[in-house]
């Protein structure tokens, strides 16, 4: 019965956007760029510091997928529940572990790491102020009535960028950095975790859709340990990866008028850079100007990360 419910919900997600998809411009598979866009220096330095190469890291995450039939089955099942091709999830995993951190050799290591977070005392705070208290400040009043977790945390991130980022408020100087890096990285700024290399803020944003589709408990910002356990546990994190990708596909359909569901390199790119709705709006605005000037519309383009996914897609599909 539970499998039927999950299948129904996955189909329902896809059906809700059919009318929009019919009017959307299909972005064909493959890369728009003939050569791979430049890889950021930070990614190169991180890889060199661990005495490895991008190719070696790719082969390592490929081997993890190749050697673990159970993981591949989990990916297929999760993709079906969210109405997406499994290659979108695979692309996110491969991109993260090629350009971010090395994959572990065995999936079991992720489960062990997940349990370790339950014994740690973690906080989401900056300069001694817990984020739960921080978002009660009057600047966040406009977000108070939002019920959906994505809209709520997206609103709070916008307030952070507008009212606090790089400013001094009430005698406290706030860094010119992302909301997630400032409040949601107990170990060090920019750190992500798990098979999908999710950050806690993204997980909190996707909490409602994962609760509805997969039936997992809603995440509580007041319980950082559980948030990190969710990120590290493959059985829990895969739905969050899928939900993040589903959000990007839906945003580009409904806002920018593009169907990117057949291009895992594009969803991998958005998984890497984040803020799919803002990027969809920016692309929509650019294309409105291009049309007004009699120019052809611009298709979404992959970055270095998504370029690799599309370049390796045949090899990755062969695993499934």
UniProtKB/TrEMBL annotation:
Residues 1-23 form the signal peptide. Keywords: Signal. This is DUF1402 family protein.
